From TrEMBL:
SMART domains: Alpha-mann_mid. One of its GO terms (biological process) is mannose metabolic process. Gene3D superfamilies: Glycoside hydrolase 38, N terminal domain, Glycoside hydrolase family 38, central domain. Residues 514-593 form the Glycoside hydrolase family 38 central domain. The keyword NAD does not apply. It comes from Catharus ustulatus (Russet-backed thrush). Keywords: Glycosidase, Hydrolase. The gene is MAN2C1. This is Mannosidase alpha class 2C member 1.
Amino acid sequence: MAAIKHRRTALERVEKFISDTYFTDCNLRGRLFGDRCPLASLSYFQTPRRIPYEEAVVQEFGPAQVGQSFGPTWETCWFKVELSIPSAWAGREVHFVWESDGEGMVWRDAQPVQGLTKEGEKTSYILTRSLKESEPHSLTLYVELACNGLFGAGKGSMIAPPDPDRRVTLSKAELVVFNRDVYELLVDLEILLDMAQLLGEENQRSFQALYTANQMVNVCDVMDPSTFPATRDLAAAIFSQRNGESQHTVHAMGHCHIDSAWLWPYEETIRKCARSWVTVVQLMEHNPELTFACSQAQQFEWVRRSYPGLYARIQDFVAKGQFIPVGGTWVEMDGNLPSGESMVRQFLQGQRFFQEQFGRICSEFWLPDTFGYSAQLPQLMHGCGIQRFLTQKLSWNLVNSFPHHTFFWEGIDGSQVLTHFPPGDSYGMHGRVEEVLKTVKNNKDKGRVNHSAFLFGFGDGGGGPTQKMLDRMKRMSDTDGLPRVQISTPDQLFSVLEKESSQLCTWVGELFLELHNGTYTTQAQIKKGNRECEQILHDVEVLSTLAVAQDKEFQYPASQLQQLWRLLLLNQFHDVLPGSCIQLVVEDALQYYTEIRRVGAQLQEKAVESMCRDLLQPEEGSTQSTLVLNTLSWERTEVISRPGPNGKETLGMSDLGLCDLWFSLGRVLEQNLFAFQLW
Ligand SMILES: [Zn+2]
């Protein structure tokens, strides 16, 4: 077949040539893997706890086999994998393949090396890219398998309460030869096929792509790898035909949106971060161009504490500019419910962490998934060293389509931040032709600015980007007919947007999300806990500050306050404070509030004792004393209660004034009157 006689027939011919469903006994896809070899041995032990590697490997392991199921939900299985690579595979690329519906992590030499998650298209760990005689052919790996899926264990639907009896099945565990040359051809053909189908019949590049793909099928003999280079040359010829200067630029950045808790508890998120980020740094080792934007200081702190070896590797890639901390906040918090002070603390704790750990603060506020954005945020961002903002959640609006993708967002005091919504309406792209075309098509400001963000990678423990995503985008870097796809950074994107920003429109006021409205009324205990704890921490800080001002011996409880603030800020995560999480998370959150109340009360007491030691002594002729403090900066009249004679509660009216120091102490006497001690 030298020429295309019929478009549909030619399209189908190419489709079948790379299909993973049809003709895999004789098509190119069927040649992706070569010889296979079973594991030398597989054994496991199971635990209800999430334990460290050192504790796991000294347990007693019993036999396990492929096809076996493990559970119930939230348990962890540790597998000891002994493998022996056949010496006949010299020179070949060898993968350890592991397929299960649980979330896995490979450990090698006591270090995590690779996440394994079917939903994240990560089912193999590369043992060697070209087997040499000198390298060890026999080795032992461990696989830590969480008995939950990427999105927890919802019974019946993803967001339903978890099924406590869910089991995960180990469906594959073996060694295989991976044919890299076949893989490269498959990626070429997938891109050409997508161009042929998606650019449309009226587009000449669609015809050229299809003609080339058809020619490739002609030239390629799947049984004869010596035909592969000539086949690849055909693809390279079309990919190297470049765009004109007017073409739109898509700024691709690796990303893995990890909800700090949602359909799984906080503790599982720590492992999700490790599984995902180790996969990212592993990919960076072989792809120095890969960039990865990573938010939420809390998650960095979790990995720092629990996976110091991995954290050190991350720090190296941060220094190289590939692993890029963004956001500036402690977590990706809810954008409406936290108090203004809490919002400031999100930035304060976050930026301070990034400064201490990586030597710089973040320049971009990064909050892609929160359910609406308060109009006070632009002002707060300015105050925290940030004038750029990225989100995309408003694309979920039920009624109105937001009119911009790149614009200035103006807050209540007139502060403006340059804002960008990735026009592909997702923070989990896969680097496909369809997605880059959608990005340009959707962009409502492409007449004003010719650049869009494109965040690619599987989220929530799916391990972020894959090699395949990168390889797809390499082919689309500058190919006539497709937008330019450039691996980029948030700074590069916003820098070009800033240069072209003179004609941008301005949106004044809050960014209201027309969806998820029920999150403001559900799980009232969490909302109540948040507000009460915000007040408690405010009071501890006011009282401790006054105590230290009055008594140099008083120790300001800085580190305890930091710990309590961080707990409170964590609970402000955008699936916790809004209540869109499972019951397990609610229980954790309420426990954190109990902890803040408990320690907060102790700290308040210490500060008050230090400040008011004399006032706390009972009045003459009385055994009781009540001290009323006003920690606000205005006068108040409040009804207060205190235990009276015989343990009965009595009520009293207390006017709490304001002194020059904006603080007052009142003392309630026996007759329910009050006295002021101004100072
Ligand atoms: Zn989220």
